[in-house]
Specification:
Layout (H helix, E strand, L loop, with lengths): L1 E3 L7 E3 L4 H13 L1 E7 L5 H12 L3 E5 L2 E7 L7 E4 L4 H11 L6 E4 L11 H8 L3 E3 L7 E4 L7 E4 L4 H13 L5 E7 L4 H13 L10 E5 L8 E3 L4 H14 L1 E5 L12 H8 L2 E4 L3 E5 L7 E3 L7 H9 L5 E4 L11 H11 L3 E5 L2 E5 L8 E2 L5 H10 L7 E3 L12 H8 L5 E3 L1
Helix pairs in contact: 1-2, 1-3, 1-6, 3-5, 5-6, 7-9, 7-11, 9-11, 10-11
């Protein structure tokens, strides 16, 4: 549990590595032949889950002083595999098609909330790609055996771009790939698909998304490489919002050229009226006007929790579009935002696909249940800055899923040094 005391914010921090980038890099390192050096890899629970899985799937991993060395001969197991994805939604959706290139039996399971998240996409799609596939009524655990035979597919991308990422990497990993086209209907989170392709280029495979189609002409051979993982815009969004509502902050290790979807937080902060200054690798945000804003989060739904906090501090009403993307996260994130932030004085309602947030008459302290959701724990902590007395965040270790150092960095920014562990 964490006690969060009201405070102004000021200072400078360095954000950890991008969870999305690290997991993609580790997946490609498993598929690749040769040695891959990954510098600045993250250490969140989700990243460690993928690291453990690729080791169990045959890659050799060595921890260097400032990097990870992954050695692989490509993914071609010689025995049946028993693997766990722990609680990572991205890893489940990304690695399942890759693992479907095994001619051996694969059992893939997980733990916690991931066991309740729908994955029935794979029941239909992988079966159509000649994979012998069984799930637990569309959910983990999975039992399957390939090898996948890539074909032309038209798929609905409205649920999650992570399924698209999985198919891209699964196709590229397939020794049976010839020519194939993935056509994506209703694509969402397009920046994440672009990040998927960007990471792939580091390993020597150049693909592009054009008119919602990706053309493959394989088979491909990924080659081990050296790459640096950029900082995580998703994690940074909470600290940037803290600066916009309660003082000022400079966040380092953020590439302004990044293709990460959550870089769009910059536009929301500007529309809110905050002072925003950027350089090649850092962002400075200072509290200023606090205006209501309109924002479409359809392609960056992980921004909903920090944006809901930002909007609660505005002097006029705000609207955030894309609520349909929130149901199958670590929590039902719509319900979690309404429940927990309302305890703290947020005035929130849902109208169709939009979350409507009116100015809060008063930010109040509360005891917060993050619903097992790392982003809710961080959002509530930032929201608590403007209360009159301290708030409590229960089960605060949930932040380890994506941002283990969150409370340490948050503590360094609080000008009133009163965050207590219990």
């Amino acid at each position: 549990m964490q006690h969060i005391y009201p405070s102004k914010i000021g200072g400078e921090v360095t954000i950890p590595a991008s969870k999305s980038f690290t997991q993609r890099a580790l997946t490609c390192a498993l598929i690749a032949e040769g040695k891959t050096v990954i510098r600045n890899a993250g250490v969140s629970d989700d990243e460690l889950a993928v690291l453990k899985l690729i080791q169990d799937a045959g890659a050799k991993v060595t921890r260097l002083p400032d990097a990870l060395l992954v050695e692989s001969e490509g993914f071609s197991p010689t025995k049946n595999l028993q693997l766990s994805i722990h609680e990572s939604g991205l890893a489940t959706r990304m690695l399942t098609p890759v693992l479907a290139n095994s001619s051996k039996q694969v059992n893939l399971t997980g733990k916690g909330s991931i066991l309740n998240r729908p994955m029935d996409f794979f029941d239909e799609v992988l079966t159509n790609l000649d994979v012998e596939f069984e799930s637990n009524q569309g959910k983990l655990p999975f039992d399957f055996k390939g090898r996948m035979v890539p074909k032309d597919l038209t798929i609905d991308g409205s649920l999650s771009s992570q399924f698209i990422t999985g198919l891209i990497y699964g196709y590229v990993a397939s020794p049976l790939l010839k020519k194939a086209v993935l056509t994506i209907q209703n694509p969402t989170s397009i920046p994440y698909i672009e990040l998927t392709l960007e990471v792939l280029k580091n390993f020597g495979v150049h693909l592009s998304l054009q008119e919602n189609k990706i053309h493959f002409n394989g088979p491909y051979k990924l080659t081990g490489t050296t790459l640096d993982v950029e900082g995580d815009w998703s994690s940074a969004s909470f600290l940037l919002v803290a600066g916009a509502i309660a003082g000022e902050v400079k966040v380092n290790n953020l590439s302004i050229k990044s293709t990460q979807a959550d870089k769009q937080i910059l536009q929301a902060l500007k529309d809110f009226g905050a002072q925003v200054l950027t350089s090649d690798d850092s962002v400075f945000v200072k509290e200023k006007a606090k205006k209501g804003f309109i924002f479409d989060a359809t392609h960056c739904p992980d921004l909903f929790p920090p944006l809901a906090v930002l909007a609660s501090y505005a002097k006029s009403s705000s609207r955030i579009k894309g609520v349909h993307r929130l149901t199958y996260k670590e929590s039902n994130r719509t319900e979690a935002i309404l429940s927990e932030l309302s305890k703290m004085g947020a005035v929130i309602r849902v109208e169709g696909d939009e979350m409507c947030i009116d100015p809060s008459p008063e930010i109040t302290s509360a005891t917060i249940d993050p619903h097992g959701d790392h982003r809710m724990a961080m959002a509530a902590s930032v929201m608590a800055l403007g209360a009159r007395t301290s708030s409590r965040i229960l089960k605060s270790t949930v932040v380890n899923k994506s941002f283990p150092s969150f409370f340490d960095l948050f503590r360094t920014l609080q000008l009133k040094k009163e965050i207590e562990n219990q």
